[in-house]
Amino acid sequence: MNMLAVILNSTIRSTTPILLAALGSAICSQVGVFNIALEGQILIGCFVSIVANYFTGNVYLAVLCGMLGGAAVASIVAILQVKYKAADMVIGTSVNLLTSGLTSVLLSTIFGVRGSFSSPELISLPKIKLPVISEIPVVSRLFEQLTFIDYLSYIIAILMFVYLYKTVSGFHTQSVGKNIEAADSLGIKTLRTQIIAVLVSGALCGLGGSVLSMGQVTLFTEDMSAGRGYMAMASASMGQAHPLFVIASSLFFGICQSAGVLLQNYVPSQLTQAIPYAATVIALSIFGWRAIRKKNA
Amino acid sequence: MDKIKTYLKRFGAIMAQPVIATILGLLVGAVFIIASDENPIEIYQTMFSRSFLSPYYLSQTLTRATPIIICGIATAAAWRAGYINIGVEGQMITGSFAATLAAIYIPLPGPLLLIVSILLGMLAGSIYASIVSVLNMKFGSSIVICTLMLNYVANYIASYLVSYPFMDPYGDGISLVTQTIPESVQFVKLSTTNNLSIGIIIAAIVVIAFYFMERKTVFGYESKMTGFNPNFAKYGGVFERKVMLKTLALSGAIAALAGICEIYGSKYRYTDNMFTSASFAWTGLMAALISNLHPIGIFFTSIFLSGLQVGGQAIQRTSSIPIQMATVIQSSITLFVSAKLGVQFFSKWRKQKKQEPAKPQESKGGAETV
Lengths: 297, 370
Hints:
The complex is a heterodimer.
Chain A: H1 2-30, H2 38-56, H3 59-83, H4 88-111, E1 116-117, H5 137-142, H6 148-166, H7 168-178, H8 180-185, H9 190-214, E2 220-221, H10 228-238, H11 243-263, H12 269-287
Chain B: H1 2-35, H2 40-49, H3 55-79, H4 88-105, H5 110-139, H6 143-163, H7 199-216, H8 218-228, H9 230-235, H10 240-267, H11 274-278, H12 280-290, H13 295-318, H14 325-339, H15 341-355, H16 362-369
Helix pairs in contact in B: 1-14, 2-13, 3-7, 3-10, 3-12, 3-13, 4-5, 4-6, 4-10, 5-10, 7-8, 7-10, 7-13, 8-10, 12-13, 12-14, 13-14
């Protein structure tokens, strides 16, 4: 029983970055933008929040900076891909490679180290202790070591659902992805909507990145996003870009990651590390690849 | 004479964009070099003198360029047909690992073993790529995500295999390695001082073969058509699914060859993470994107990018700039090429200049150019 709670707890913790990025991917596909630079947006979030953490010593400011960093990388996508209509795959892959190189270069420029950076001066995200639940024996294990971002990610998902499906402005946003000409003729500022969606996805990925580098561990390693951006895309497409379904599909990826960590005690770690990636391929095949790339439909 | 002139003009128009992008990319690099308190001119000087300007470093650049060129062609083979294969790395790992094992464990005489093991490796690479096309056909799984995920799967499984069943206990003691491949399958060397082998010639042959396949064969035409417009290709009687199967299998086989050239030509054994750490596949991808998937362009761009990396290694040794600076410059170049920003800006500026003296008829001319 205790074991199960530990597994679920680790699932929740590894879900958060994927969920946040998947929501970013969902909002992009809702407005018909195929954003594959999520990977880079997460990575820059990891990096910038560690840098801000080191120099300001304020963990909340660091989270904010991580979000801004993600949005800054997203603005490259917004300008080149959305405004100037450059090929989405080309922009996405080169932005991902650019951030990968850039973070390594800046790591050595700013901290003078290569590979990874960690320091006792870094402050990790405070862990929230729930008032009543932390008294109950097994359930408390379930909720231990969680940061405010872990809770926030589900709130964001619900807010996004309310916005997209329950408000007029949300319907307008959706209409941009469904039929851009029609939306345009309705007087909706389609370009602006798309650009904002991309920037929001950048901020969400940046938030996911900051929990990745300051949540369970407090350090930055080269390429620490490790394909999570692409997993988030898979998760968003499995959840059909619907925020509430995306929660479910992201939890699946969280389970795969925590299963991988758990099995390390029994199976060589090289094989368990492959589990989340293989699971992504299998899950995508089972649930099918729906309309994340709507404009080609 | 006129023909040459128009040809040169066309060549100039094609080259303008990558050249402008390269200059801008180097400027972006310079910004970060200045930020690291180094002199960009000095850094670039070391970078280029230690990559192109001396025979020793030039042959090192060409050695590194070999797998990059072939990866670039593998990428182009899939992308030009509209199938976004970003899993070249995984196909490269699978293929070359299979070939290495075949070379070590199959008891065959030298030349025969060389051919058999290379073919087996290419087969493994194309099967690995075909997993994705089958999944896409049966379930509609995304090619982009699946190919990328399989990179990690291939690297981790190879990492397991090289750590346990196929580890050479008498390896180099630093990293996990397989046994060395027999000397009879090692590629002939072209240089006595370093590892430049006939791999670079194989790469050139792949480029030329791909160039002709693209232009002169039915398959080349079909795959280009599907990339152009899948609906049109279906209408024209091209079976899109068949083309996808063939295209991805071909791409995987070429990717495998890239890894095989690296192992047979210079490393002689599979080392854990050897392809991911050198990021041959991603550099090849960038070369393909910068040269707009043109095979001849890929050949020269790959050599240039490889030079940036070899030069990057040199500056990593002598200054505080890490080798990843090469990645920053490369991906900036790719972004500038794909954005066509430089060229657009340039042509706008030229048009404006042309228009300035002819101000009276501005209203008409202006409308046309906008």
